[in-house]
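Service request form, structural biology core

Requester: graduate student, group of Dr. S.
Request type: structure prediction, single chain
Budget code: on file
Notes: please return the result as structure tokens.

Sequence provided:
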Amino acid sequence: MSNKIIVTTGDLKNDYEILGPVYFSVSNKGLFGSQLGTLIKKYKGEIENLKKESLLSKERIDWGALWGEFSAGQNDFDKAFFIAVQELKSRASILQADAIVSMRQDIDLDTNGFQHFYLQMYGTAVKFK
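Core staff response, request fulfilled:
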């Protein structure tokens, strides 16, 4: 089950076998934006629970406000980050992984109005010995 998969940006002390890389990307722009909308619906219950537990922002994030600009598109980024981790776990579960080590993310932000983002997340799927 993918929810039991450990995800870490570092390494683990456990002995493990490397299964291979796992990767997921999502964006709120163009064709990828419809994928994000579909995934938000897929994880709606979990996202609502995280909001209730104050583990996910209840309000819409407006990063443009940090730079004094209006931004319409950044409000789904916190959801996209959660979804990306869940989808990364899902891909690792296909490999029968116990964990994902050295998880990294690459975030590209639209610097013209801060309306769009592109998030890539990747790591190494491992199986404990």
